[in-house]
Amino acid sequence: MSAPRLGPRTLAGLVVGLTFVVGVLSGAVLDRGFKRASATVVPPTRHGPAGPPGSARDRVGREQHRERFVQQLTRELSLNPQQVARIDAITLSREQRMNAFWQQVQPQIHALLDATRAEINQVLTPEQRAKLQDLRRQREARERMDTGSVRDTTSGKR
Q: Which of 60, 93, 94, 140 is deepest in the core (most CB within 10 A)?
């Protein structure tokens, strides 16, 4: 018996989803490494340290992040000037592609998260919804302590 064949749209969706997950995981790993390696702090906002995607603060935060990444590679791998220039160009290109991709998928991701939150709330009793809001507030408080970030996850607003 052969495995079921996936349609082109399904396959494309899986590729996009997998790419997104790999990007998020890679970003998280790199972010953790940079938090330990760097003493430079970008003051956080409701959208995290970089600000809303596309904003001036976002561009500055991403540029600083990219520069720190290249500096760390230069230090740890003893890169020569040609390697630094090529890696800088590669990371700049990747950043531009990721920004364009994020601008396309961000509304869909937010809509999916909002719909999921609404569906879950429909299943819960009023007491459970209240407890879930408390849990979200606790998570926000932990995030503020960890990063200084302020996000509103209780109302579903961004």
A: 140
Note the helical H segments in 7-153. 8-37, 56-77, 81-123, 126-147
Is 110 within 8 Å of 158 (Cβ atoms)?
A: yes
Rounded Cα distance between 158 and 150, Å, is 11
User: Rounded to whole angstroms, how far apart are CA atoms 28 and 20?
Assistant: 12
SS3 48: strand
Helix-helix angle 56-77:81-123, to 10 degrees: 130
C-alpha distance across the termini of the chain, in Å: 48
R_g (Cα) of the chain, nearest Å: 20
What is the maximal distance between C-alpha atoms in the chain?
61
Q: What is the block-wise mean pLDDT of the chain (158 residues), using blocks of 10 residues? A: 68 72 70 51 42 58 86 94 94 89 90 92 94 91 70 47
CB 153 within 8 A of CB 47: no
- C-alpha distances (whole Å) from 32 to each of 58, 65, 66, 137 are 18, 12, 14, 23
